[in-house]
Amino acid sequence: MADERQPVAEPVAALVDRVRAGDRDAFLTIVQTYQQKVFMMAYAMLRNREDALDVVQETFFRLHQKIETYRPGSGFQAWLLQIARRLAIDYYRKHLKDDRAHASNLSLEDARVATESNPAAERAADLRQVLSREVGRLAERQQRVFVLRHYEELQFHEIAEALDISVGTAKSLHFKAVQNLKKWLTPYLGVTT
Questions:
Q1: Domain 117-193 architecture
Q2: Which CATH number fits domain 1-106: 1.10.1740.10, 3.30.1360.30, 1.20.120.530, 1.10.472.80?
Q3: Cα three-residue angle 125-128-131, rounded to 5 degrees
Q4: pLDDT at residue 93, rounded to an integer
Q5: Is-above-0.85 flag for pTM?
Q6: How high does pLDDT run on average in the chain?
């Protein structure tokens, strides 16, 4: 299974080398590959599309400036998401700390893709909306871990690296998030305990 991941690391390492050499196309490839993940991280923290887009732009600007500090062999995505996390925290402190009403009601699913108009999607939309609302109720650290695990499909070691926490803390926060969501979603799912 480790062999399946190796091809992914090699192209990223090659792209990083090309960016270091001034290759604009390589930089654009990195942006296209990771911009949605950076957006989801920023949106999960800021809950506002425009603010998240500002953080995405700043993240890739910083990536370009600090590409020399990336250590080949370490997780590029986790390194990039850590930059995004720090920028989102800084953005929150500067702009939103005392203005939580600034946050939008757009759900994580709606932020990811434009809404589709089809009957099957509409049937699931209510549950997705409830889930998104309940994820928004989670404590901030639980929410970040949950989003990275389930929306971005990161492994716990990648989450730990991106959030600068231990793997055990990432697992604990995820467990607590799942327990809270189970409790809060039970009435919507028609499950009795």
A1: Orthogonal Bundle (1.10)
A2: 1.10.1740.10
A3: 150
A4: 83
A5: no
A6: 79
